[in-house]
Each structure stands twice: as C-alpha cells, then as structure tokens.
Amino acid sequence: MRHGETIANGKARVCGGWQSPLTRKGIDQAKKLAIRLKDESIDIIYTSNLIRARKTAAYIRRYHQKTPCIVESELRERYYGTFERKKVSAFYVAMQKVGKTRATFRPPRGESAGDVRKRAKKVLTKIISQNRGKTILIVAHGAFNTCAILYLLKKKNTEYVKLFQHNTAVTIINITGKKVKLHTLNCTKHLK
Questions:
Q1: Is the pTM of this model over 0.90?
Q2: Where are the strands (E) in the chain, listed by range?
Q3: 2 within domain boundaries
Q4: Residues 6+ apart with CB under 8 A from 84
Q5: What is the C-alpha to C-alpha distance for residues 109 and 83, in angstroms, rounded to an integer?
Q6: What is the pLDDT of residues 129-163, one digit of tens each?
Q7: Which terminus of the chain has a smaller tally of CB atoms within 10 A, N or C?
Q8: How many domains is the chain built from?
Q9: Which pLDDT does position 36 carry in this prediction?
Q10: Full residue range of the structural domain in which residue 80 is found
C-alpha cells in the first residue's frame, strides 16, 4: 500500500525523505483504506519510518489491533537529494535536461530508481524470508512500492511509470516459494 496524500503531494512538492504529514484528504484516504482492509487476514504489518506511512498504517491497525506492526526504515521513500521539497516540475525539467527518465535519473545527492530497487530487493528478501506462509501488509511510498513491484515481478526499470502507485493504492502480490503472481495492481476502488 501507499500512504495517503501528504501536504507535499497536495502542493506538488517532491516529498522523498521529508516528513510531510497527511492532509485531511490523506487522512480520509487512509480511513477508507482501513475499512477496505478490515476483514482481511493480515499476519504482520511493516511500515516505513516516515510519518505519512506510519499514520496510514495506524488507521489500518484500528481494525487489526492484535497484528504486529514493525517500523522498517529501509521501506522509506526514494531520496531525491537536492530536489527534496522543491516543486515536482523542477525535478522533471532537470531530468529532461539531461535526457533521463524517472527510472534512470539520479538527482544530485539522491537515489535513482535502480538504487531504490536494490534497497527494495534487500529488504523484501529479509521480510519475505522471515514471514514465509504469512500475509504481509507493507505500507510505504510511491517510488519505493513501484521499485519493489518491478523487482518482484522481474520487470525492467523502463516500466516504472506504468506501475507508479497512487495514494492508498492496493497492490496484492502472491508469493508461493519462487512463484510470484500479481493479483491486484494500483487499485483505489475504496476511494470512490
């Protein structure tokens, strides 16, 4: 899952590692997501250490109070370096200026999608190996989730834009042994 809308999202600012809180709309999205998930069997919840993901996970936990919730800093959002807190449009202008895409651009002092994918591989390998046979809910971020999906589904980074996650989007991936199957991608029906 991706967190609810943040103040930075609402103002078209690059959020990355910035501790931008949820907006009223983001809180409403998180509550609707929690209601959607209330009857699901969830064995363990992992959340990024950033406040927007932790708050979204807290709304989900209202219906899953006995489910353990682990804060994992490696689930944090892509770090956008010198573009943190800047207008998203400035990020795109700089990216296009050097002929790169969202998947290939590494901002000064920041991470590329490839960097995040490597981080996603490492942390997901750990989480999955520690929770075999369990239903795991991960609450994280748009770029991180996208890179995680690319890794799990063995997709190329060039498919980054096609898989980018909307606020409180639900993606369900079933993993049985080495078999990985996409069940639901970027679903926001709970927001309608």
A1: yes
A2: 44-47, 69-71, 136-139, 170-176, 179-187
A3: no
A4: 14, 15, 16, 17, 18, 110
A5: 9
A6: 999 999 999 999 999 999 999 999 999 988 988 88
A7: C
A8: 1
A9: 98
A10: 7-191
